[in-house]
């Protein structure tokens, strides 16, 4: 009886764990071929100013898996980071974004828009990151002043001097920098003081309850004041309600991104949305 009980528990244990482990292994395996198999595409999410005029878009990566369908970035980005694949994938994203910027130069709807591209810590810390970006800029011929790189606090904790050096060089080319998901990481104010940033992006988690949680409201107010005083543009992510936008505006927030204005869209739909906005302005 004892033996069968033990077997049973082993079986249960296996059943519970195997699918998750296998799925992850399968994803990691498939991710290695996704780039050459053309399974990635870019979505664009609108960013607007206080008057709700378009000012830019964030580039968001999508993976269309041949059998699983769309795999969310929250599932495959961590795997891409752990396996190192994020370096080549991120390079591809950057190249596509720069080609898009170049293509947009000719359209009055898109000409002044900034494109924000997420850069993973591993990607940014590659010794040849500056060289890679420089090459991509040259190959695409885009205007670097419309390219914004979004970094996260996880990067900054690691090797602050290297990060500052790279940002400084890339800024001389005209590229601007945003600190993404600001407020949830571990970067200290002394680090923030030294970083030559252009923008702070307030994390969605502070925006979610901003209407009902005074603590969140005060934190957001403080981030906006600090950001503005440091001369940075401040943008809020994850704005879903009109009342959230009004409150953020009252607190002095410069720009907004969220479902209230537009969900991330594939290129054609994004362009159509922009045209529609301009028709109504
Ligand atoms: P993120 O950079 O903070 O991007 C914002 C995320 O919030 C996006 O999720 C976007 O779809 C979502 N979002 C925006 N507005 C709203 C809203 O009003 N409500 C809700 N519920 N969500 C909203 P997404 O596209 O799933 O991307 C998740 C994360 O994956 C990104 O967070 C970023 O960290 C990472 N990621 C996406 N694309 C790339 C990429 O090309 N490279 C790297 N390294 N990371 C990427
Ligand atoms: Mg981002
Ligand atoms: Mg973000
Ligand atoms: Mg976020």
From TrEMBL:
Domain of life: Bacteria
UniProt-recorded name of the protein: Diguanylate cyclase/phosphodiesterase
UniProt entry keywords in alphabetical sequence: Membrane, Transmembrane, Transmembrane helix
UniProt KW Electron transport keyword: no
The organism of origin for this protein: Methylotenera versatilis (strain 301)
Part of the intact protein present: 356 to 636 of 636
UniProt domain EAL: residue ranges: 24-278
């Amino acid at each position: 009886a004892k033996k069968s009980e033990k077997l049973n528990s082993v079986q249960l244990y296996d059943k519970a764990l195997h699918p998750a482990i296998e799925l992850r292994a399968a994803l990691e395996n498939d991710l290695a071929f996704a780039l050459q198999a053309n399974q990635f595409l870019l979505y664009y999410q609108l960013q607007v100013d206080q008057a709700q005029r378009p000012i830019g878009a964030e580039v968001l990566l999508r993976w269309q898996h041949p059998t699983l369908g769309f795999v969310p970035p929250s599932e495959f980005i961590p795997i891409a980071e752990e396996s190192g694949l994020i370096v080549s994938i991120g390079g591809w994203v950057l190249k596509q974004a720069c080609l898009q910027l170049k293509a947009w130069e000719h359209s009055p709807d898109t000409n002044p828009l900034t494109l924000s591209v997420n850069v993973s810590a591993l990607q940014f810390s590659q010794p040849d990151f500056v060289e890679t970006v420089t090459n991509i800029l040259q190959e695409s011929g885009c205007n670097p002043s419309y390219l914004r790189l979004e970094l996260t606090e996880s990067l900054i904790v690691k090797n602050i001097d290297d990060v500052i050096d790279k940002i400084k060089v890339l800024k001389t080319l005209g590229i601007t920098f945003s600190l993404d998901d600001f407020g949830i990481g571990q970067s200290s104010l002394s680090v923030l003081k030294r970083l030559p940033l252009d923008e702070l992006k307030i994390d969605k988690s502070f925006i979610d309850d901003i209407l009902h949680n005074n603590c969140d409201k005060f934190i957001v107010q403080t981030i906006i004041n600090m950001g503005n005083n440091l001369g940075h543009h401040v943008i809020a992510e994850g704005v879903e309600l009109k009342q959230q936008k009004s409150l953020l505006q009252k607190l002095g927030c410069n720009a907004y991104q969220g479902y209230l204005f537009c969900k991330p869209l594939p290129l054609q739909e994004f362009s159509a949305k922009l045209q529609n906005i301009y028709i109504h302005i």
